[in-house]
Amino acid sequence: MLLRTAVCAAVLLLCHPQAVFAQDAATATRAEQDLASRIDAAIAPYFKADAPGATVIVVKDGKTVLRRAYGMADTGKGVKMTPEMALRLGSITKQFTSTAILMLADEGKLALDDDITKHLPDYPARGKKITIEHLLTHTSGIVSYTGKPAYSATMTQEMTVARMIDSFKNDPLEFEPGSQYRYNNSGYFLLGAIIEKISGQSYAAFLEQRIFTPLGMNDTYYEGFGKSRAPVAAGHTRGATGFGVARPLSMSQPYAAGSLVSTVDDLARWDAAVSAGRLLKPASWQRAFTSYRLTDGKPTNYGYGWEVGKVQGEAMSGHGGGINGFTTHAMRLPDQKVYVAVLTNSDSGPANPGLVARKAAAIAIGKPYREFREVALDGSALDAVTGTYEVEQGVQRVFRRSGDGLVMQRTGRPPVPVKPASKDEFFLPGGLDWFSFQRDAGGKVSSVTVHQDGNALVNPRSGDAPAARKAVKIASAAFDARAGRYELRPGFVMELTRDGDRYFAQATGQGKLEIFPMSETVFFSDQADAEISFEGDGFVLKQGGRNTPARRL
Questions:
Q1: φ, ψ for residue 396 (rounded to 5)?
Q2: What is the pLDDT of residues 154-170, one digit of tens each?
């Protein structure tokens, strides 16, 4: 709201979605053992023996080639993580919610283009048609309740489904339904309510009886509403002195958007069932894994509960999760018959489960990501690659010097450090993307190629890097006269505040961001790549090539 021991000799064989896993080292071929060793060598360094850990499973061609646990299940009690442990899934829950909706659609009990008021007649749609498909694809325009300023202060409260819906239903829509993609937990909360309304069962009972029990997923359940023999890992949050107990959360609040608990074994059973086409009609599964298109025709790279993309050029569908104490990621590469799940019991590192899952999947399909080592370059070599490079109309990628190093910043995004692997190749530390610079006949850099998941995108150089914005000292009274709340659009407000000689902006549903004065009337944030320019009784927000006026409230 998600060590380094020798590779286990046992290799797990997934015989059938409802079958138990059988451990038999003799079934592992030398090639499978070698694959497991290479995956383990690549991902083990992300976990420390005395820190929160992870359970990881990699399945290829129906066989579990890696099933490992790393780190600690409970750092306070000194309990080590084991592969059979259950962890919160966070938003991986959404694919189970979407499947339940599609099951009801296949049974003729709803249609994806139904107006949600057909099933939730008291929901105030304000004359707009918000469909079930809009909820599935994060394109409804409804405000996400987890992004509201008061959410963190109330997340421990037990809430009924109706009361939680009441907390966001009267907020103005953020955009016309279908016109934008904006990740939204309220949409999936409403889908849970629709499942209950149509089925006459609770969300927890529907999933247990219609999905988990038929598929033999005996260790998967809505937290607080199920029983399992699997031990449960404790959730952790990083604090000033290390990792501690995660912040409490009432599981009535994530509900159909993120309330499930599971094991990597059960998730492998789930993927086996999906691969076999169980539960849904073939056309429904196809729609679930197809990117939704907005009203202007642009793809969102999100289907129904699954993100749609690529890993090293190969089709991938998956989802991440983040919830108090846990971060997770699971992905399937259907053409390669590969499935990877990474469940971690910390909501604040040290490992990024999405990155770990991608590295494991890439090795499993025989297309590992390049590994880079930093080399030392002098200032002139770094200066040679600085500049502005065109991504698309209105979007640039700027490489500029920062101290002794180099940073890259894409329009509307924060700057990130890049490290040299050679004079023409640079990489993102802790990431998978990398950049190669091309030069003309005279040796001057003419373009940069962005290497991302098997794609090579060329960005031509269009000019020098603009000068870095510099903060100046201003009188606090000059800012205080403009501090307050400003509305950029209905329901979306930015509040400007001061703490000593530091200045902050906080938009609806977002964290507090420090801003810096360029003058008494112009402030900037490199983290958001934005400027606020005061004009009259309001300001203009300049970000991503857009100028958005805001009026003072």
A1: -120, 160
A2: 999 999 999 999 999 99
